[in-house]
């Protein structure tokens, strides 16, 4: 497994493994709550650090979405010899990467769970210019100054529960960034386009989890994926959390839904 000091692995007992993928500006530490819940259910869990992450904004600027995808593919490949079945799950960008990784390596990844999918930041609590900027990011990406801009998270950090929010705020030294560069928005846009172009061909069983009150990503993104995905899927709603459902009030429910889906017959026996 990785020796970057931030990735981590939990050895399970049920012969099933999950590659658990963090989001843009995130790091493996943010996935610990769901990782522990899945581990308690018997799963081996590997949480890798995505390329360009964990070492500051300058390092993130030097990476792109294909580098991030390669990190997920490598994680699944490392997990495969240790378990009988491999699954992938991720938050926001991590979920989209998990879907593309499964599409790229269908013989390795049996099913996917995506948390709070987002093609652009347009939730109820984002600054007014975020949706405008996101909708124009295609042509704005050609303007050099965008890469030098940095954007802040919302005041809530995407977390409804104040205690959990303080916990994440205390993870500043674990590779989680407080701001993200414009380059991150550009690469998120390109990743989203790559996924949209493949949705109808993707056959991997996919669980889609999204908060009804998502403050960063409108629930329509989850519906879009459900409506256009070519393979078996399930869309379930999280009722009492914001965007970061994997660390918010219902993170245990997120882990429960994930395990239930991976254990379902349609996930184990792909069509």
TrEMBL record:
<feature type="site" description="Important for substrate specificity">
    <location>
        <position position="159"/>
    </location>
</feature>
<dbReference type="InterPro" id="IPR012354">
    <property type="entry name" value="Esterase_lipase"/>
</dbReference>
<dbReference type="GO" id="GO:0052689">
    <property type="term" value="F:carboxylic ester hydrolase activity"/>
</dbReference>
<dbReference type="InterPro" id="IPR051044">
    <property type="entry name" value="MAG_DAG_Lipase"/>
</dbReference>
<dbReference type="InterPro" id="IPR022742">
    <property type="entry name" value="Hydrolase_4"/>
</dbReference>
<protein>
    <submittedName>
        <fullName>Carboxylesterase</fullName>
    </submittedName>
</protein>
<dbReference type="Pfam" id="PF12146">
    <property type="entry name" value="Hydrolase_4"/>
</dbReference>
<feature type="domain" description="Serine aminopeptidase S33">
    <location>
        <begin position="18"/>
        <end position="249"/>
    </location>
</feature>
<dbReference type="InterPro" id="IPR029058">
    <property type="entry name" value="AB_hydrolase_fold"/>
</dbReference>
